[in-house]
Each structure stands twice: as structure tokens, then as C-alpha cells.
Amino acid sequence: MTYCVRRLSTLLLNFKPSQSIPALRKYSSVSEDKLLYFAFRGRGEPIRIIYALAQVPLKDERVPISLDHWMNIKKDQPLGQLPVLTCSEGTLVQSKSIARYAAKKFGLAGKSIWEEALSDMIIETCDCSFGEIGAKIVPWKYLKSEPKPANHEQVLADVKEKIIQTIEFIQKGAEERGKRFIISDEISLGDVMFYSSLEVAAAVYPDLMKYNSWVEDFVLNFISDDRISKYLASRPQSQLPI
Ligand SMILES: N[C@@H](CCC(=O)N[C@@H](CS)C(=O)NCC(=O)O)C(=O)O
């Protein structure tokens, strides 16, 4: 009994809320979760980052960027697209659903319904603006699966304008809350989504990572987290700039 009390106090003394210890204890030794995604960051990276933050092993299977290879395995995917997460509960598709599932499982989705809602708002806002890079720019700029549109400069300018509106919107909310990260003093799903979106955007608009001092501080705080810096230093090279 004394041992248990002592052990409990040691655990409490070492407890770092950001690491969501109960979730870690439950999942770290038994996780067999597998993520199938392409060998670039794109829609898969927020999911990879969530596992890195939770310090839970993820079988990070990266499909090489080769049309032949992809066509061979596309038919085996539930919706013919990636990412696909396989875990003990079953198979999940849709990147945002997977990211939400993983974040909830590991206690990184927010500490209240309100914080979860704020994360959701950031996810959807990023998707509506940064997401346009995937829809309107990546096919001709990186995949060469479509010809460069005649009005490509206008497309680039319009998407950038939308992204800047998003950045300023997220910044305004974060400054009103006055926390270390966008929603709270701990990194949560909203931060992961915003950082991942900025990384993708930086391939097309390198100036955006330093858009203003708020963005610079956010990025610095985010990448200074030990779990994040370890992950960033060790992740495989992305086969595309996105
Ligand atoms: N709404 C889906 C979109 C998935 C999607 O567009 N995946 C792309 C890669 S980012 C893909 O698999 N492209 C190959 C194809 O459609 O054949 C999600 O968020 O997961």
C-alpha cells in the first residue's frame, strides 16, 4: 500500500499534462495502428504528428509516388484514396476523421467540449483555405497530372489571399485567448492542423511561415516542443515539397 502511494506520488510529481499520460499508458505498448499514406506530408502529416506527440508507435507506411504502384493498390483502398488508418477497432478513412479519432484517443483533442469545438473550427477553416493548394495547385505544380492553367498566377494569388484571411482569423482568436498555443497552453489538434497546413503552404508561398511575428512565435513554440522537435528531426524526407 505504502509502495502504491509512493508510486502514485512519483507519477503525479512527474506528470506532464501535455503528454496525456493515461492515454500513453493504455496505448503505447499495445499500439499496432498503421497509417497508409503517400511518401509526402500532405493530408497524412497531421496524423503522423499526433502519434509523435502522444509518443505512441505508428506503423507509418509510405506509398512511393509512382502512378503504376498506386494504381496497383488503389483498388484495395476503401474509398480508392489515402490516408487509411488500420487499428484494433477497424479501418478508418478521411484524413480529418482519422486525425480527430487519434487526437481524442490520446487526449490531444482539447480538454473540454469548447476546446474541441475550437479545434474543429480551425481544422475546417484550414481545410477551406490551405486545402485549396491540394485542389487547385498541387496537380499542375507538383504532380504534373494536369496542365498548368493559363491563369495560374491568378490562382496562386487567390489561394494565397484566402490563406492569409485564415491566418489572421486564427491569430485573432489566439490573441484574444492569450494562451501559449492557439487554444490552450498545451499543444492540441488545432495547433497540429495549423502547423501542418503552414508547412504545406510554405512549399508554394515560402514567406508564409514568417507572415508576421505571431506566426513566427507560433511556429517557434510548436517546433520547440521536445516531442515535435524529435519527430521533425527524424521523419523521412518528403518525396514532394508538400
Ligand atoms: N477527403 C479525403 C481526400 C483524400 C485524398 O484526396 N487523397 C489523395 C491524396 S491527398 C489521394 O488518395 N489521391 C489519389 C487518388 O485519388 O487516386 C481525405 O481527407 O482523406
From TrEMBL:
Chain ranges of the GST N-terminal domain: 31-110
One BP annotation, GO: glutathione metabolic process
MF-aspect GO terms: glutathione transferase activity
Database matches in InterPro entries: Glutathione-S-Trfase_C-like (IPR010987), Glutathione-S-Trfase_C_sf (IPR036282), Glutathione_S-Trfase (IPR040079), Glutathione_S-Trfase_N (IPR004045), GST_C (IPR004046), GST_superfamily (IPR050213), Thioredoxin-like_sf (IPR036249)
Record-linked SUPFAM superfamilies: GST C-terminal domain-like (SSF47616), Thioredoxin-like (SSF52833)
Stretches assigned to the GST C-terminal domain: 112-242
PANTHER family: GLUTATHIONE S-TRANSFERASE
Protein name: HPGDS
Species, as recorded: Bugula neritina
